[in-house]
Amino acid sequence: MSEMNFDRMVAQMTPEMYENFKQAIQLRKWPDGRMLSAEQTELCLEAVIKYEVIHAVPEAQRVGYLERNECASGGHDTAEEAALKWIN
């Protein structure tokens, strides 16, 4: 698929399609139960990210968003520090 066709497809995605793609990425399978290939996962993720940019989805609602918590010194945790806190 050419970049122009992909961009046009993303611009025409409905909110329902966007939510279905996000769920498919999370579960690694389509709503009918078929597994996503690595290429399908990558394309869905790219479509979701482009959709979020085109439709100005708030940052906190975007795929991959990590909330940054302030540490005692008043600074922000790095994404790596936040992930380590979540894991521990």
UniProtKB/TrEMBL annotation:
InterPro entries referenced in this protein's UniProt entry, alphabetically: DUF1315
Domain of life: Bacteria
Protein name: DUF1315 family protein
Native source organism of the sequence: Salinicola endophyticus
